[in-house]
Amino acid sequence: MNTIDHPLDQLSAYVDHELDESEHERVDFHLDECESCRALTAELTEMRSLIANAYQSIEAPVRMEQHVMSIIEQRSSDPMIASFGLTAVPIAGLLLLFLVLYLYGSVALNFLSITFSFIVTSAHVFSHIASSTPVMWGAIFLIAIFVFLLSGLSLRRILRGTMTREGGELI
Ligand SMILES: [Zn+2]
Question: Residues in domain Putative zinc-finger (predicted)?
Fold first, then answer.
């Protein structure tokens, strides 16, 4: 087994398009040759989009809160519905509370999923290190990582399923 120089410290910058042209080409070239770095790059790309999604879900409740507040303001400024508006405020407040609980629930799930991605990505990095340690210990370590990866991936799949269902209901 020959020693290959994996550009592990550059992969994150590669995914974020932060490398200069020659570095980017060098990583590109390495990814063509190296399957484990390709897998790691795919994990990093997925983690990046999960983080982006989580931030979008945080923005959503802010906009919805403004929308609900503007409806309350419209109603209470109309003298015909002003008295009705008094009863509408606590109802709208309750609805808003449920909405925030509901939306922040899915944000919490997103962050759980990101944590799992992070653990899986770290496991990839460790498997790189394990491949250069003595064969017996390396094999034991890789088996442990494999079992860990499988449990992590299946948990992540369950979480992603829950997230998709929630996303569907929101639209
Ligand atoms: Zn590599």
Answer: 9-38
Q: Average pLDDT, stretch 80-106? A: 70
Residue 1 covered by a domain: no
Q: What percent of the chain has pLDDT over 90?
A: 22
- Residue 166 scores a pLDDT above 70: no
Q: How far is the CA of 37 from the centre of ligand 1 (A)?
A: 4
Question: From ligand 1's centre to the CA of 38, what distance in Å?
Answer: 7
Residue 116 CA to ligand 1 centre (angstroms): 22
Total of domains in the chain? 1
Q: Containing domain of residue 162, as a range?
A: 8-170
- Taking Cα atoms as reference points, which of 45, 39, 38, 35 lies closest to residue 12? 45
Q: How many CB atoms lie within 10 A of CB 104?
A: 13
Kind and range of the H or E run holding 138:
helix 135-170
Distance of CA 102 to the CA centre of its chain: 18
Residue 2 within a domain: no
Measure 46 CA to ligand 1 centroid, in angstroms: 18
75: CA distance to ligand 1 center in Å? Answer: 62
Residue 3 falls within a domain, yes or no? Answer: no
Q: How does residue 90 score in pLDDT terms, banded at 50, 70 and 90?
A: confident
C-alpha 18 to ligand 1 mean position (Å)? 19
Kindly state whether residue 19 falls inside one of the protein's structural domains. yes
